[in-house]
Specification:
Shape: elongated
Number of strands: 4
Radius of gyration: 23 Å
Largest sheet: 2 strands, antiparallel
Distance between the termini: 27 Å
Strand content: 5-15%
Number of domains: 2
Strand order of the largest sheet: 1-2
Helix content: 55-70%
Number of helices: 11
Low-confidence stretches: none
Length: 226
């Protein structure tokens, strides 16, 4: 896997690579959602303030509903996205890659009470930093995962248009890793490609740009592009 991708194999045998989101984009999405809720409550308070004591009671109930059920409703009904998550390209899904349901959305948001302790989401931050996929405690209990939404990309051909047979026999998982590198490599920087290719020096017998080119050629050979 590259970086923080989580691989999930569906019952049909399809491998899903889920790019887990870290604490920074999630915190930014939370700030956006908080500002939206605060703005809605400010506007509502201006209107209800004219009703006197009755308005105060309605405002109190509305504040509870907005601050606690805003994320639950959006995540359950808007494909796992609140406005803040949508603006950051994030989405909540079940850990197996399925859409998040009402129960999971309610559970993960209810447990924010624990993640907020002792203050400023300290518990949730520590949990997300220790977890390989950046999950806070609410996500762990609810069986959910916050991921970056896949953005449509135009297919990019591998830089190498010739095939090269590997110098040694590769095991199935090694072949899969090589093909995965060829598929994702064009979306990475040249420096990142070279960094990953250097790990395969025993196979390529080279480093840097030359190693990258040889890996692409070997992937072409494995895919039958000869």
């Amino acid at each position: 896997m590259l970086d923080t991708y989580r691989e999930v194999v569906t019952p049909e045998g399809v491998a899903l690579h889920l790019p887990a989101a870290g604490p920074v984009p999630r915190a930014l999405a939370w700030v956006i959602d908080f500002l939206i809720r605060a703005g809605a409550m400010l506007a509502m308070g201006t209107v209800l303030g004219a009703l006197g004591r009755a308005g105060v009671g309605v405002y109190t109930v509305a504040m509870f509903l907005v601050f606690w059920f805003y994320p639950v409703v959006f995540e359950a009904m808007w494909d796992g996205r609140t406005p803040g998550k949508r603006s950051l390209g994030l989405r909540v899904i079940a850990a197996n890659g399925a859409p998040v349901g009402w129960l999971a959305a309610f559970t993960r948001n209810l447990l924010r009470v624990v993640d907020m302790l002792p203050l400023a989401y300290a518990t949730g931050l520590v949990a997300s930093l220790l977890d390989p996929w950046g999950r806070r405690l609410g996500d762990m209990v609810a069986g959910t995962l916050v991921v970056h939404e896949a953005r449509p990309r135009d297919p990019q051909p591998a830089p190498a248009d010739t095939a090269l047979a590997p110098s040694i026999a590769l095991r199935p998982y090694e072949q899969a890793a090589l093909v995965a590198f060829a598929e994702r490599g064009p979306r990475l920087s040249e420096a990142r490609q070279a960094e990953l290719a250097d790990l395969a020096q025993p196979l390529t017998g080279a480093r840097g740009t030359q190693a990258v080119t040889r890996l692409y050629r070997m992937a072409n050979w494995l895919l039958g592009r000869r």
